[in-house]
Amino acid sequence: MSYRSSKISEIYTACSLHIENESFLPIIRGAAKRSGSDHKYESADFEADGYQLKLVLYPYGNEKRNGNGHISLFLAISDKNLFLSSGWEVNVTYTFFVFNHVHDNYLVIPDGSMRRFHGLNTEYELLVIKASGKGEMFSVVKDPENNIFTWKLENYSTLLNDMPIYSEVFTAGLCQWKLSVYPKGDKRAKRSLSFFLRLHSSASISVRRKVYVQFKLSIKNQIGRGHHERTDRVWLSDSVISWGFVNFISLKDLEDTSKGFVVNDTLITEAEITAISQVKYEV
């Protein structure tokens, strides 16, 4: 590997990426589209000769590079310091390995040619690096431990203003969460209460990482006539930490005491994490 062709270093670095729960891929893709993000998964950074690299997986192909109908996987430079410098260049020689689970062997695609990373091209396509060295396993866990959180909003009539209200922090699926409620709706709402799930912190998410979550938000009916529930799924990250419903339930239904949502000046909300992504690292 070289920087601006000033040296050649024979450094051999391997990284593996293992995706479990393949049946979740269509759901994850749909969540990405709903949140306006690319349907891709980025591995943690790994180092080769002092450079920070990562694998970028598109389970349904990179549409921008005519990858429809295929799985696209790229090797990408992730070193921000390089992006800030002008005229940088890194040359990389690599070989591809594709693991066959049926025959328990690898399809080896020898290449041997050198690829050049630079400011205008920070990705090169590949399939998968040989499964040794640093590894990462991505999976989706259904109904993680302690996945239901109930939040009572007492003295609800005193909370009817334009400011959001936040719950205490709760933990589910190795992540810490909060709920936020706008009793009179946020600025986008149409005479409705707004209700959101917020990612507070996570043991498996860091800068440039994402966590996939399926969830259900509810307002409990306290006289047994059916709860008001809505479900969704989304990728959350350091840039998108909150997701939910601007028009969750109409203010008219909340104000009608016969509906049973506000009883003794108390509103009862609930969040259920039905599935969440987890990442395990292997060194």
Secondary structure blueprint with pairings:
Blueprint: E1 2-3, E2 15-19, H1 25-34, E3 41-42, E4 46-48, E5 51-58, E6 72-77, H2 80-84, E7 89-93, E8 96-100, E9 105-109, E10 114-118, E11 123-126, E12 134-142, E13 148-154, E14 165-166, E15 170-172, E16 175-182, E17 192-202, E18 210-219, E19 228-237, E20 242-250, H3 251-255, E21 262-263, E22 266-282
Parallel strand pairs: 2-12
Antiparallel strand pairs: 1-7, 3-5, 4-5, 5-6, 6-11, 7-10, 8-9, 12-22, 13-22, 14-16, 15-16, 16-17, 17-20, 18-19, 18-22, 21-22
- End-to-end Cα distance, whole Å, is 22 Å
Give the helices and strands as they follow along the chain: EEHEEEEHEEEEEEEEEEEEEEHEE
Q: What's the rounded overall pLDDT mean?
A: 77
Number of helices: 3
> What structural category arises from helix and sheet content?
mainly beta
Largest sheet: 7 strands, mixed
Number of strands: 22
- Cα gyration radius (Å): 24 Å
Can you give the helix content as a percent range?
under 10%
What share of the residues does DSSP label as strand, in percent? over 45%
Morphology: elongated
> Which residues sit in consecutive blocks of at least 5 with pLDDT less than 50?
1-12, 124-133
